[in-house]
Design a protein that fits this description.
heterodimer; A: 186 residues; mainly alpha; 3-methyladenine DNA Glycosylase II, Chain A, domain 3; Alpha-Beta Plaits; two-stranded antiparallel ribbon; 6 helices; 37% helix; 8% strand; B: 563 residues; alpha/beta; Rossmann fold; Fumarate Reductase Iron-sulfur Protein, Chain B, domain 2; 4-stranded antiparallel beta sheet; 15 helices; 17 strands; 39% helix; elongated
Amino acid sequence: MLSAIIALSILAAVFGLLLGYAAIRFKVKSDPMVDKIDALLPQTQCGQCTYPGCRPYAQAIANGEADINQCPPGGETTIIALADLLGRDPKPLNAENGVQENVKTVAVIDEKICIGCTLCIQACPVDAILGAAKQMHTVIASECTGCELCLPPCPVDCIEMVPVGTDINNWKWPFPEETDQQEKTA
Amino acid sequence: MRRLFQFHGGVHLKEHKKDAMSQPVQAARMPKQLVLPLQQHIGAPAEAIVTAGDKVSKGQLIARPGSAISAPVHASSSGTVAAISEHPVSHPSHLNAPCIIIDTDGEDRWCTDRHPVANYHELPPEKIREHIRDAGIVGMGGAGFPAHIKLNPDDHVVDTLILNGAECEPYITCDEMLLRERALEVIAGLRIMRYALQAKRCIIGIENNKAVAFHVLQEQVRNTGADFIEVIQVPTVYPTGGEKQLIRVLTGKEVPAGGLPLDIGVVCHNVGTAYAVYRAIELAEPLISRYVTIAGSVAHARNLEVLIGTPVIDLIEECGGNRNTLSRVILGGPMMGTALHNVTAPVTKTTNCILVNSTVGDVPLPSRDKHAMPCIRCGNCAIACPIDLLPQQLYWYARAKDFDKVQDYHLFDCIECGCCDYVCPSQIPLVHYFRYAKTEIWAQQHEKTLADIARERHQFREQRLERDKREKQERHKKKRAALKPAGNAASKEDEAKKAAIQAAMDRAKTKRESNGIEPKNTQSLTAEQQQKINEADARRAELKNSPTNKQDVQRDLLQDNNP
């Protein structure tokens, strides 16, 4: 009896120490869940989810503060991916955060109107606007995420969102059945 | 006799090749206008180096490669650049692409700056590859991969260089005609390619339905005494002309999934590419023309030597086709070709065949674009698939848009040969589904890379802002620290000033007291002045007591302004 209690106590103590050591030795600094969620978000950094960027939103989802349906640029695809990752049921996009735009857009500055105030440069979350005080600004189209954060600060309303056109390089084959239906209706 | 191997599946197709081979190949008529797309190859588009109005001569460089994987474009004939603009091209999207449009002058005047290589053995292989790159040569079998890259052994030992003359699609005969008429030049090109690759041996693979070409080639190989070249007949099964299939048949080796033939010591080129290499090296002629089959509903089906950039409609009319009765024109073969939406689209470096359908006599084509019925899971597609894939599974997952699963079933090993389409009893456009899934997956991957870039830039920006803030604080701290010792000195000065002021005040006081002078402005007021002061005091008191204070007044004013 006594020997059994002692043996179990020693075992408990040994495993306790082992686990305690492992917890310190193999400590994961950042929350891997946040990274995983962040990887699924579209990184537009637009703030439509009410958080100041994609990573804070990922943090909020991981902490259970935010729902998974608050990202309009990601839309349905992102919601389904998040639902998969977190083992939740997908739900429709929260209309309060905005609607999903089907067409990808980029900001274009009308260089004739731009007064070089640098306000849009300060607003851009990905440093996609090039310029300096009293110098004309321009958007680096390949870096623009289409978040529209540069629109409100512009004092002369010279920024416009222009849809990215389809060319031979980014054209996609249509879904076969959809074309069939189109032909039938036509 | 060499032992041949088999690949899985494949289909036997009716050939329809006789018609177009009845006449020898001629040069096509000079078109009035040449349309040269900047992208005729896999890789980055070329960049135009001419502008509208420039005079160009035949063979002149008009667009340089856009990146390492790219190919230049040369003027196919002499003339004037009319425009660099969007023009219809052969593409399933039916979209226009940037092209250099040249009005020909009919003189066909060669540019003078040409340097043929007299003896290629004297140049190192890199130089040969440079020449081939500068000649704008791309794979002429259909894919259009820049040839100089495929001629770089890149630390691998190339055991076998295969020249692909299988030409397995129905109707197409341009490679066969090339082998019949230009066998010597093709062999010369093959020797140069072998030198560039430092390959041990060469095999020319021809389907066994091309007896004439086979015999001509065999004789020429014997005559030139090139004992390292073997000419081998392979069974006529579609798609033997596929790179991986031909390698399998000739060597028994299988190209690993996602790998290159180079990984197993094999390189495969089209016979047309060998001919182009010969002309580039020995004649210093860049790739400006190619053999094209015009077949189908035309009066005289035949092969023509066509300048790159010639509009398709010109060739159809030259072969007796009627512009008004065209129903469907396909560039390439019936199995893998692309239907043209606009017949003014040009012949490019990769166009091997123009297959004409007209409303008067339709060409019998394998089943395509008919009404699809439900899959009955017969498994014929899996039997026919030359890659040993499961097209049926791929179809289900592509239809369900399950892009992870579809990749688990090796979607990206599909060569889009169309065998599964051809055998499907329900006439399901399987390849269309696979292409749809492929482009969707590519788009998703592209978006993912863009998101990664955006994340990186955002994080960098946050770090920068953080750093700026820190630096600003440090600067302020330094400034304050720098001000402190100066502050002590200042206080001494202040004290001195205060003392001076105090002294002045004291002086004034003693002066006032000694003189007895007092200010008089509030005393001995006139009655009028006193009354005004009283009135002002009364107003002040009234304002203080009244319930509407200043803020209320302001608010009322605001509300009046903004109803």
